[in-house]
Every structure is written in structure tokens, then in C-alpha cells.
Known about the structure:
By secondary structure, this protein is mostly helical. It has one domain. It has seven helices and no strands. The longest helix has 34 residues, at 100-133. The chain is globular, with a radius of gyration of 17 Å.
Amino acid sequence: MxxxxxxxxxxxxxxxxxxxxxxxxxxxxxxxxAGYLELAEGFKWIGTWTAFAAFAVAASLEIAAxxxxxxxxxxxxIASPMGVVAGVxxxxxxxxxxxxFLHWSLAIIAGGGSAGIVQGGTxxxxxxxxxxxxxxxxxxxxxxxxxxxxxxxxxSIVVPLLALALLLALIGCMYYFGRQVIAKLVSRxxxxxx
Length: 194
């Protein structure tokens, strides 16, 4: 049962990397330093003061950069693969008692996959925000993404089952609304073309 809970924590932390790459790493570092989260062998470095300082600086820079209008869309291009890699790392770091083959298979599939799904949703949300509001709503989108990154990271460690349920609901909403927006954009394009 403990391994299943660790997998759920790993999925939650990995998915949080889809909102912001360095925020979940920072939260994980704080939780490990506080003794609240045990990290797998080979990932103990995440719970060091040096890693904490590096993640704090990186998270601050990442958060600030998303408030610069042209840079936020550019960062989505870079953050997508970085988020997936961070998701794999956090999943692997938080799951401590699995066979190495299963451990890394799940880290790549569940960790990288959940980070990629959430990151894809944020990329689509920012693209829609940029196209429909000329980027005026991107400030709000960035604030929501940063907040979600912190909230889901903390919840994944403190109340992992609730975090997983909320994450699945959020992914379902992103899928539903994403399909609606894409359908409207395609419909507009079809009406505009002769």
C-alpha cells in the first residue's frame, strides 16, 4: 500500500511540473529538508540546501519570466520538454521501493506522461489566451498556473489522494474546454474561407 501511495505522490508531483518546471522541485526540496518526504536513493541531493537555493532562484526567475508578454509563449516551447524531464525526475525521486525496471518505466510513462499532459493543457490555454485577447489575459493565466503549481505540489505530498482526484478533474476540464475552443476556432476558419 505504501508503494501505491508513493506512486500517487510521484504522479502528483510530476503533473505539477506541467504548470511550472521549478516550483514542484522547490516544494519537493522543502518537504525533503523538513523531513516530510523521503527521497529515493540517488535523489537525496534534491533535499539539500544547495538544491533548495538553486530551485528557489530558478523558480523565481521562471515565475517572473512568464509575466513578460512575448517571453511567456517562448518559454512554453522550452518548458514543455523540461517539464516532462522534471516530471520523470520527481516521480523517480518520490517512489522509493520498487524494482528498478518498474521504477524507471513508471517514472517515464506516468511521471513524464502526466507532466506532458498538463504542460500540453497549459500551452493550449496560453495560445488561446494570446489569440483571443491579444495576450491581455496571459497575466491571469500565468498567475493561475503558478498557483496551481504550488497548490498541486503541496497537496501531492500532504493529501495525495485528493490531489490526484483534483488533478484528474482538472485534466478532464482542460480536455473538454480545449475541444470546445478548438471546435470554435475551426468553425470560424471554415466560415471565413470561401
